[in-house]
Amino acid sequence: MIFGFINKLSIMNLNPFSKTSRSARLLLALANKDSARTNYGMFLTSSIAPKGSNVNPTVEVLYKDGKKLSIDSSKINVDRLSDMIDSYSRTLKFKDMIQK
């Protein structure tokens, strides 16, 4: 994943025991590496839902240019989720390369 163009990554209503939270859990594991947070200055937040909760997990991404992306991650796998997040990051990377 391209973390260099992400200011904030929020994973809300994460139920670690729910099957619908699998892609959000895996994304949290990817983004929670020290290299991703320290090298790029990304701010990572997460909130855990109660064990019996049926609320779907939501991933919110705030990019460096101010665009906000909100995704319901209950019905998509982690590969599709990372592709959705990376698609706009690739656009910002391309714009950055053109400006230099």
TrEMBL record:
Source species, domain of life: Eukaryota
Molecular functions (GO terms): structural constituent of ribosome
Subcellular location: Mitochondrion
Pfam family of the protein (one): MRP_L53
Gene Ontology CC: one annotated term: mitochondrial large ribosomal subunit
Keywords assigned by UniProt, alphabetized: Mitochondrion, Ribonucleoprotein, Ribosomal protein
InterPro entries: Ribosomal_mL53, Ribosomal_mL53_fung
PANTHER family: 54S RIBOSOMAL PROTEIN L44, MITOCHONDRIAL (PTHR28236), LARGE RIBOSOMAL SUBUNIT PROTEIN ML53 (PTHR28236:SF1)
Family in the record: Belongs to the mitochondrion-specific ribosomal protein mL53 family.
Name of this chain's protein: Large ribosomal subunit protein mL53
